[in-house]
Amino acid sequence: MSAPPSKLDSLATYFGVDAIGDSPAEQKLQDMKRRKTKRRLWMVGGLIATYLLFYASLRLIEFSLAEIVGQVDQFYEALLGYFPPTTYFGIPFVDLGAYLSFIVEENLILTVEGGEIVWGAMFVTMAVAFAGTVLGLPLALFFGVMSSERVIPYPFNFGFRATMSLIRAIPGLVWFLILIPLAGVTPFTGALAIMVDTTGYLGRLFTDELEEIEDGPIEGIRSTGANSSQIVSFGMLSQVFRQFIAWIAFDLEHNVRAAIGLGIIGAGGLGLELYVQRQTFNYTEMMACIILIFLLAGSVELISQRVRSALREDDDIEQSGIIEVFVNAPRKILSSTVGRR
Fold first, then answer.
1. By residue range, what is the domain housing residue 283?
2. Which of 56, 62, 102, 209 is the most exposed place for a label (fewest CB within 10 A)?
């Protein structure tokens, strides 16, 4: 008794092929098997390579669980400094007064001397971030527009893209060190470093947005006989106005955090105060600085989110001028916040 025909034999009979090895179905199945085997090999190879890189990284940084366990007692003592214990109405709690007294004594927020307001480290950090963002915005807009193939055809736009890539390749901390001979170890140098950093990152985001715009408005503006600058202004930038404002708000969040990092290496503000307290092992004072950093960064992030939310919900922004948009922004942010509550 002969064996029943296999599925492949049935397919071969259906396609009218005598030799199953020559059938298209067999070839397709073999190709699928090869691709599947190749994917598995790549996956296994990728996992092995990742493990080897991870193991080499741990060896290079001298990672040791035994060292961590040995430092647990010292870390616990530091935690008691970060969170000094006290009692409120007989209930154990963190001594918030220790934080507040340090903030007031060091004038980290603001103080009044001789009838004049003296801004503290927290506002210095905010000033560095805001000034650097505003200074870098025109350059970011220029490089962002000139890097778009819709404005400057390839390869002539490559120079602008390469410049932004070079800027992004160098961290903001390094830009600060590079610019020290120009303006010294000051908050102003920190603002200049953030300006350069903003040019690279925000400019790239602007370019990406311009690459995604619709062709219809551009052709409509061009058909009216508009020149190149009018096409860019009314046919291109008008389509990405909301996105640009949203990215500017997001970049300001990033720059506030960058200003804190720059302060640690000399740019002033909360970062410098945090570094000084770390050098003297004043953990309670360090935590007070960290609390202010959290409040500052969190407040800027909240405002940025409200701005982006207001831009998404406003349908009439294209009909409004830039001045009207910024004048009405606080009201829209407030109404959006109250509405969500």
1. 116-340
2. 62
- 88 exposed, middle or buried (CB, 10 Å; 0-12, 13-18, 19+)? exposed
Closest CA to 145 of 66, 231, 217: 231
Q: What are phi and psi of 127, to 5 degrees?
A: -65, -40
Return contacts of 215-223, CB within 8 angstroms, 24+ apart. Answer: 218/150
CB 303 within 8 A of CB 333: yes
What's the CA gap between 101 and 288, in Å, rounded? Answer: 9
pTM of the model: 0.77
- pLDDT band for 148, please (50, 70, 90 cuts): confident
Query: For 226-267, what is each residue's pLDDT tens digit?
Result: 787 888 888 888 888 888 999 999 999 999 999 999 999 989
Q: Domain check: are 51 and 146 in the same one?
A: no
Statement to judge: residues 161 and 41 lie in one domain? no
Instruction: Name the token pair of 9.
Output: 């034999």
Is the bond preceding 155 in cis, omega lying within 30 degrees of 0? yes
Domain holding 241: CATH number?
A: 1.10.3720.10
- Tell me: do 312 and 231 sit in the same domain: yes
**Mean pLDDT value across the chain:** 84
